[in-house]
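Sequence only, no structure available. Ideas?
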Amino acid sequence: MSMGPDALPMPLVDAAALAERLAARRPTRVFDVSFDLADTAAGERAYAASHVPGALYLHLDRHLADHAPPADGRPRGRHPLPSRVAFAATLGRFGVDAGLPVVVYDRSGGLYAARAWWMLRWLGHHEVALLDGGWAAWLAAGGAADADAAVPPMPAQYVPALPLVHTVDAGMLLRGIGRLRVVDARAAERFRGDVEPLDPVAGHIPGALNRPFKDNLGADGRFRPPAELRAAFEALLGEAATDEVVHQCGSGVTACHNLLAMEAAGLPGAALYPGSWSEWCADPARPVARG
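Reply:
I predicted one. Tokens follow.
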């Protein structure tokens, strides 16, 4: 990993540092990952209207998920991961190779950009950061806004390395109930099972703890200071080692926000359950808790 003067701050980069980096023409690929679950074309429209100069667009459904029917016929949740090979090919088409620093941002407090950050780490990508505060922070810092389509880059050959993050599947999680610390990033009312607007069953995985991803952000939309995040996660997790922690949410997207927050807090090593609640609750044999 590069540690020289051109190294990218990680896992968060502020708008001023990114602007300086781009002005100095340091090699960097910026991705706008704006999205809206209620209107899946909204993020792309927002990108087309205005974005960080030179930024390219990643779509949650097209680029960061694989909705092809699974070969075994088993539900995989609402946003299944593509294969590492498929995502590497996507990055290659955008001119990214394993050595190119990448910055991701969105217009939702990092909700969707965190998924892209995690997936790059999943490919073994070292230099990847999320723009702290996203599009709003960029504009507030005086960053330029561009409505022109970015010039398509020359394709690259992306060769995945060993993952820098970990995953667990439903079977591993089922066997680990009572031992693993499962952290659910959904809003408290969904976690309790009071409401469920997206999935067919309300509730949560037995024994799970609730850490709504929005709790990672301050009033300014930026991540809380590392010491504050660390104290919050240590209070939540108790004596659990980070390699005993599994993050999940509705479909494996907002859980990545908690994973990034733990990384920023100096608590790396937790795993993601990619299928999350949408996969878990699709099998009536799996236990469900409420309250």
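The mean pLDDT is 95.
Hope that gets you unstuck.
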